[in-house]
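User: Run a structure prediction on this.
Assistant: Running it now.
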Amino acid sequence: MRLLVLLSGEHPTLPRSEVLAALEALGVRFKIAEEAEQVLVLEGDFKREEVARLAERVAMAHYFGELCFSCEASHEEVLSSARRADYSFDGSFAVRVHRVRHHAEHLSTERLEREIGAVIASRGKKVNLSAPENLIAGIISERFYLARVLARVDRSAYEERRPHLRPYFRPGVLLPRLARAVVNLTRVRPGERFADPFCGTGGILIEAGLVGAEVYGFDLEEEFLSGAELNLRHYGIERYHLSHGDARTLWERYPEYFHAIACDPPYGISASTKGLSLERLYEESLASIYRMLIPRRYACVLAPSEVDVEGYASSAGFGIEEVHLERVHRSLVRKIVVLRKWR
């Protein structure tokens, strides 16, 4: 099967990386067949339950579908390809066409919906625009893609977990979609041990717990640990461990113990670094995180762009896998650094 992924487009690089990392965590074998803006086409022996688990796991995508065809983004090519395509599904259908940004503005989404729908209906399929059993989705990007949607990402669930809606709230924490993407970048698998050495109110731990990991949170602030416990319980996460701890020395208690580690150390105006410079905090914490992580596994660390996370991580022994940049506000650009301990 060729699996089409409509990425969210909320960040230029994170959605693609999150999907690929989540596939790796789920143990699904695949190769990239095509790419376009907000579109990934993956080739592999995808089972329906694997696609459903993938949609439950990722945050920065809209849906996953079985590709019917891709072609040049011209009206003639789209209709020609639609007539040649195989539509081997049961039940009613509706066609919906979505344009990515300003691609191929000469194409009318409404006209394509009508004409592709007519082609499929001519194969004996029943149209149902109000409650179709099958959604046939067209995407206009650098090319045109048509796919039968297999599973949708419930993005509303992340909105329902926004920080200010939790039992314990402090400003300046990661939004759930970014926290889930960070968790996925670590490739943690259900049942594995996941740590956040700067857990704060537990935002990253919540998302790791919801993908099935056993979570461990550490912080120097007892109030944060109490608040994190309230939040974890609120979302039904039972396999958690919270304790007071300094990220720089945790390796003494947990040498090569964790399958995945992610953290967003304090660096904002309201954050406390207990008198340490940011540089020293990151340098010593990364050395500890390296020692805590099981070999050949991943960590993900967030930091202001001016902090040399890559240099400190390399000195600790990590390989640098990816770096993503995100503008938080006018004075802060955050980077999300994916690290791997090779031995």
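The mean pLDDT is 96.
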